[in-house]
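Ticket #4471: structure export looks truncated?
Reporter: QA, pipeline team
Priority: medium

Steps to reproduce: submit the single chain below to the structure queue and open the exported record.
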Amino acid sequence: MTACLAAGWPLLMAFVGRQLLVLPMANDFTRAASKGLSAAALMLATIGFVYHMCREDGLAQIHFRWSEAARLTLRRNLLWLLPLLVPLSFFFAAVETENTVAYRDSLGRLAFIAAMVVVSVFTVRVLRFSGGIVSKLLRRHPEGWLVRLRYIWYPLAVGVPLVLAVLAAMGYYYTALAFEARVEATVWLVIGLIVVNALFLRWLFIARRRIAFDEAKRKREEARAQKTEKQSTDTGVDGQQVVIEEPEFGLARMDEQTRALLRAVMFFSALIGLWAIWAPVLPALSVMEDIHLWSYRAEVDGVAKTVPISLANLVMTIVVVVITIVAARNLPGVLQITVFNRLSIDSGARYAFGTLCRYAIIAIGIILAFTRIGIRWSSLQWLVAALGVGLGFGLQEIVANFVCGLIVLFERPYRVGDVVTVGDTSGVVTRIRIRATTITNWDRQELIVPNKDFVTGKLINWSLSDPITRVVIPVGIAYGSDTALAEKLLLKVAHENSMVLDQPEPSALFLGFEDNSLNFELRVFVSGVERLFPVKHQLHQAINREFQEAGITIAFPQRDVHLDTGGPVEVRLVSGQAPSQQPIRTVDGTK
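Actual output as written to the record:
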């Protein structure tokens, strides 16, 4: 909408200029007027966009959250800059197109000098230290780089237009024109980066607010479910909470990683843009191309040539490495806030995709860095072959775990947050790395299990595709008990428990007759292995209570003891005597 507001008159001026250029009877005057209208339209569009951006309830105030003092300062100064700079741009471009030396060196030079003076005055009024923009910056970020370097960039911003005006007045008009074109491109670059950075920050604010709202709704639903079921859904199977840190990204962490990546992108974009703008006119910036560090042999168009590696190639390699490190470090938060929150995938899949993307960025960065310094695949074939042989013999276990880690990330037989059993180890998967996986068991111990054990060994994943788990409660009752009543009580206990699922239905089975008991089994289903032990505890308590109230005895082992002393033995307990004074008599009367 801001661009549409600013594009009205510039589009009309550009259209008129285009029509003047394609007239059948076009001459030098119409071509000059067409060029002037095009230059004036571009200047009007640039100033008009910033002016409308700073309007009341506009982009800068509502979305970019610029301070009121900065917005008013910029808007008021643009209001007087607009009627001065646009006509000067038209006059200067029209005279330059005329290509008449007398006009260019007199009227054109005068318009150029006037435009540079106007720009310098505008810069002084907008960027003065006591103004609404810099004073706000001094208060908010007193230790920032812009504040620390203000005595460098402020004289440059004010002095460069004046220096160009002086150069034009002294006769170095062509040099002044060349530098003015670069200064204008630099101003457009700075304005573009400021707007793009502000747009991304606004988008980040909206995305963070949406994620916070969704997170609040999710926590509210979890709280309701916990209140209804009287059991937390994020406890371990022993009733203790198991913290899974890896796949979850807090809002602060996502915001920090996204801002860090955005700052890095803006910095390198500005650096590359300034290099591309100023390198053609400043030979000092191209001197690194002439400093050769080493060279390598390469085949170019079928001809073997020696390709030099200059200092500029080394600098670009360092830039690529830095960008790769920043991107790989901050990628998870950026993907979380840009992509994953729009997809219906679980946290384990998000973590796996983020890890794979991080590895891909690192691999691409290494390849680009090696290519810039002349290390190509053809030069590394022998080294890769030698490393392959060495890794195959000396580091076969590490390589096996590395390959298995890739298989785990692609195949995903388990995810972060799953409850697994591998060998004699059971617990919650809390971290998946390229070499090993971390499992937190129920004793709060972190076990580092190599990925090879998961791929080549037997793995039980309790929550891979179906979180429903069966719980079996064996119960033995004494002979002579009412078996129908026992079955009824077991089913009653199951139906009254809030964690037991209605589908599949609970069942109570009379399995058989043992030496000392009538064996029953209560089989119920729960949604999640984390409820395994809590539901066992509750069912045991309820079964014991119901059986006691119903008079059903839970069986215990019984044994018959036989004393063989060569004949019958009479054991008699006389009441009223202490156990130590009770005589034991045999049938023949001896004690």
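Status: closed, not a bug. The export was complete when the record was re-opened. Leaving a note from the reviewer for reference: Strands lie at 292-300, 303-310, 419-422, 425-432, 436-440, 446-450, 459-461, 468-477, 507-513, 518-527.
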